[in-house]
Amino acid sequence: MTDQPMTDETLQLGRSAALPRSPEEAQLDRVPNPHPDTDYLARFTAPEFTSLCPVTGQPDFAILVIDYLPDRWLVESKSLKLYLHSFRDHGAFHEDCTVAIGKRLAGLLEPRFLRIGGYWYPRGGIPIDVFWQTGAPPASLWLPDQGVPPYRAR
Asked: Which residues carry out catalysis (predicted)?
């Protein structure tokens, strides 16, 4: 893992960046939050997330919704896109992918609150939805529904 404090020289933003071969090799960049004194929600939605089943090697598909209340840091969106893309050839169960992404972002950003919802399409006739969060959200935070309904032939 190459997460580190970023400078203009180490950010992937504004530069050509190769697709990482694995989540472990992917670099996640963070930038200073210009409003650390304000509680607000930042949301990223990845409607075409893909990983591989570690048993069959077949692709698994999900909608990921990442909500967080920043403290000092924001995740840089290009690096997040490249990190999520690195799962495309990565074999892991749905639960592992979802929780690992949440934990890595929480470790990098040290947010006041973070939650991730992984809404996985069915394999073997059963959809698996996975949810993880860092703790209770602050009372001051407006936390909207993630907007992905339970599976009904999405």
From this structure: 53 (thioimide intermediate), 60 (proton donor)
**Residue 79 DSSP SS3:** helix
Q: Catalytic residue positions?
A: 53, 60
Q: Is residue 86 marked as binding? A: no
75 annotated to bind ligand: yes
Q: Degrees (nearest 5) of the Cα angle 25, 52, 98?
A: 70
How would you write the pLDDT of the chain (154 residues) with one tens digit per residue? 445 555 566 788 878 888 999 999 999 999 999 999 999 999 999 999 999 999 999 999 999 999 999 999 999 999 999 999 999 999 999 999 999 999 999 999 999 999 999 999 998 888 999 999 999 999 999 999 999 988 876 5
24 is in an annotated binding site: no
Positive or negative torsion for Cα 73, 76, 80, 82: negative
Would you call 28 exposed, middle or buried from its count of C-beta atoms within 10 A (0-12, 13-18, 19+)? buried
CATH topology of domain 31-133: GTP Cyclohydrolase I, domain 2 (3.30.1130)
